[in-house]
Fold this sequence. Notes:
The protein contains eight helices and 17 strands. It is an alpha+beta fold and 345 residues long. It folds into two domains: 16-110 and 284-344, 2,3-Dihydroxybiphenyl 1,2-Dioxygenase, domain 1 (Roll), CATH 3.10.180.10; 123-272, 2,3-Dihydroxybiphenyl 1,2-Dioxygenase, domain 1 (Roll), CATH 3.10.180.10. 46% of the residues are buried.
Amino acid sequence: MMDRSPSKINSFPLGWLVVAIIAVVALFATAKGQAVSHVESVGFTVSDMDQALDFYTRVLPFAKVSDVEIWGSEFEHLSGVFGARVRVVRLKLGDEVLELTEYLTPRGRPVPADSRGNDRWFQHVAIIVSDMDKAYAHLRANKVRHASTAPQTLPAYITAAAGISAFYFRDPDGHFLEILSFPPDKGAPRWHESSKKGKLFLGIDHTAIVVGDTETSLQFYRDALGLSKAGESVNYGPEQEHLNNVFGAKLHITGLKTPNAGVNVEFLEYLAPSGGRAYPADSKSNDLWHWQTSFAVSDTDPLIKIFKPNYISTGTVLFGKPHLGFRKASLLRDPDGHAVRLVEN
């Protein structure tokens, strides 16, 4: 952080990347005006919605804003999963939205039990808290699964992140989550303003993804989608190692923001250690390691021309009824395999 199980794991195919980069250069001028405005939601697949809701609304104070079941060809084409029938629940904490999806049919595979913080399928949301000690005590009282050994406060030699406190934990399905506390000189003003209102859990600051190469990911998220670079840091040392629970962890962290305020995107590139595993090549949207970052855009079509080589959906899908809050969407993968959903209201 910074201021501002499948039976076989295969490397995610990146042969499309050369074509995509060429397309970015060729089409950036036309796509530039159609860049995303904000992160509409961050979501992932869960195995049992009732269990997930108990966790996210009781252990964490998210509030349910919608709860729908969806099936039929439109969602099949968007998700890339034939025969899909899903229950989708949207939750809110502060102004940010978390979207949970349970596949009633067909069921997907669990998060690999040996998942580590440097594996390429790693993604989390960072929830801002007003008091780290109280938040950690609350999580301990509710017996959450640790991912970090304990809350860590980053040292002064990591200038961009000095004084930030954080802790990783997991939900019932094994999804990584983070609580994060900013010192007075760091973080968006809205977090410091919200902390004065007496709430412990305030909202989602960012979603973080492990990337293989920062510059390649910047071509996707900055040059094509239109996010802007907000800052960067190289994090290392015992505090960072115990936060990620990866011995010898040294990370190049890059923060990105959208034109409108809201959830940011953070790249985690592991400079060390080597050996983080690639995104499973046979991943499906119903697998429990599936996360998707949804971006709102005024017109998906110009952008889709860039990403066509790596669709998850069959293309851009038009919904007759906006059950999920949008009428048009497409689902695709970034250079490392992370799912990105473009939605148009």
